[in-house]
């Protein structure tokens, strides 16, 4: 790896490191949850490697646990992951010059936390040059490695994790830390507030449909706010 790209890679690792405080307990909870919902250790670990989408993995396990129909499970997990298409579209112009192997690797490693780390850096306005993909790789691999290790820890510990440990609280804290710094105008604020309120009000809906309803409400709020010039 050329020295200039390595410097960017190291910067990406350092930039994403604070978010790992929330990601690690999140991965441990997923590993324990997957076993409690009937997945084998191998399947739980394979899902973290192949799917590599924490919220979608949690949703999948919960839907399997309540016996949701396969169509509902596939639809909800797919809709939940549609946000990654928006992340990819935002970053595509910046990596258009890269060979396909780089694009495939970065697409696989693109997560909420990695995108938030990249977006904060890009918002600084500095021109980071043609080697910025090293930063993307560092942020993505930092998340990937911590997720695999924490998932494995959760699978190994399983039910032996003390029930009184409030590890599940790390998930909302992590996403709050991701979202809040990215809110820069009224449209973004409207999306965050409306989707958050709807998610709380709809938490009792079956098959976690409240998540989908909250996402749709947030998109509608963003469309209305942007269209009205608010």
Short recap of the structure:
The protein is built from twelve helices and no strands.
> How would you characterize the largest beta sheet?
none
- Count of strand segments: 0
Give the helix proportion (percent range): over 70%
End-to-end separation: 46 Å
Multimerization state: single chain
Using the CA coordinates, give the radius of gyration: 18 Å
- How many domains make up the 3D coordinates? 2
Mean pLDDT: 84
Provide a descriptive summary of the structure in words.
With 230 residues, the protein is mainly alpha-helical. It folds into two domains: 3-167, no CATH class; 183-230. It is 72% helix and 0% strand. It is built from twelve helices and no strands. The longest helix has 26 residues, at 132-157. The radius of gyration is 18 Å and the shape is globular. The model has no long low-confidence stretch (mean pLDDT 84).
List the helices and strands and how they pair.
Layout lengths: L2 H14 L3 H17 L4 H10 L3 H12 L4 H11 L2 H9 L8 H10 L2 H11 L9 H26 L12 H10 L6 H16 L7 H20 L2
Task: Provide key terms for this protein.
about 230 residues, 2 domains, 12 helices
């Amino acid at each position: 790896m050329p020295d200039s790209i390595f410097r960017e890679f190291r910067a990406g690792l350092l930039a994403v490191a604070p978010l790992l405080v929330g990601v690690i307990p999140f991965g441990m909870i997923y590993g324990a949850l997957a076993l409690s919902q009937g997945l084998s250790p191998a399947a739980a670990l394979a899902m973290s490697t192949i799917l590599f989408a924490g919220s979608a993995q949690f949703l999948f396990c919960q839907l399997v646990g309540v016996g949701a129909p396969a169509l509902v499970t596939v639809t909800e997990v797919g809709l939940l992951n549609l946000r990654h298409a928006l992340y990819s579209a935002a970053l595509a112009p910046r990596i258009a010059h890269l060979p396909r192997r780089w694009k495939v690797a970065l697409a696989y490693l693109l997560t909420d936390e990695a995108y938030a780390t990249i977006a904060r850096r890009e918002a600084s306005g500095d021109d980071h040059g043609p080697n910025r993909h090293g930063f993307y790789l560092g942020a993505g691999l930092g998340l990937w490695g911590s997720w695999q290790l924490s998932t494995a820890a959760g699978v190994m510990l399983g039910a032996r994790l003390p029930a009184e440990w409030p590890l599940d609280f790390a998930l909302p804290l992590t996403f709050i830390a991701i979202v809040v710094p990215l809110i820069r105008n009224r449209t973004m604020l409207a999306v965050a507030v409306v989707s958050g309120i709807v998610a709380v009000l709809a938490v009792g809906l079956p098959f976690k449909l409240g998540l989908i309803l909250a996402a749709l409400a947030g998109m509608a709020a963003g469309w209305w706010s942007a269209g009205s010039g608010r």
